[in-house]
Write a structure and sequence with these properties.
Layout (H helix, E strand, L loop, with lengths): L1 H17 L5 H17 L7 H11 L3 H42 L11 H27 L2 H7 L1
Helix pairs in contact: 1-2, 3-4
Length: about 150
């Protein structure tokens, strides 16, 4: 199944390369490299095929293996999001303080508040939540048979 997906992606990239768009070949090379790393794995990390095989070997049914794999990967994504949020919570006051100190060196100063930092952060958060929610609902409502036929 992964082999067919790889072939489909290679066909798409060949078609895109034929379009002669400036800069596109470099972007496609980077995406192909990232896709290859995801499938084959990186040092210390399993690729998609090894990960699927290890979960299939550990569980009696495919459904149980898939459910456990999804739960584990979702948990990892949640932890990564939490750590990123903590980093933002630490960086926000430091950025405010740094900007405040930097602006003190100028003769003509402007006053700014924390809202200059909080507003964009909230907007990015809302856009992320809306995007993830839309994609999750779209995936949940999609017919899996239709998806399997196209691969």
């Amino acid at each position: 199944m992964i082999g067919r997906a790889t072939e489909t992606i290679r066909k798409w990239t060949e078609t895109a390369r034929a379009a002669q768009v400036p800069g596109l070949p470099m972007v496609l090379d980077m995406l192909e490299w990232a896709y290859g790393r995801a499938i084959q794995g990186m040092p210390g990390l399993d690729g998609a095929e090894e990960l699927a095989a290890s979960y299939a070997a550990r569980y009696a049914t495919t459904d149980e293996a898939v459910a456990t794999l999804i739960a584990w990967q979702s948990g990892k994504a949640g932890v990564a999001g939490f750590v990123t949020g903590c980093g933002g919570a630490i960086a926000l006051p430091l950025a405010y303080w740094g900007c405040y100190k930097w602006l003190q060196n100028y003769k003509f100063r402007i006053d700014f508040s924390a809202w200059f930092f909080i507003t964009p952060m909230v907007m990015v958060f809302l856009i992320a939540i809306l995007t993830v929610s839309y994609q999750s609902i779209k995936a949940a409502l999609m017919n899996p048979i239709k998806s399997l036929r196209s691969e």
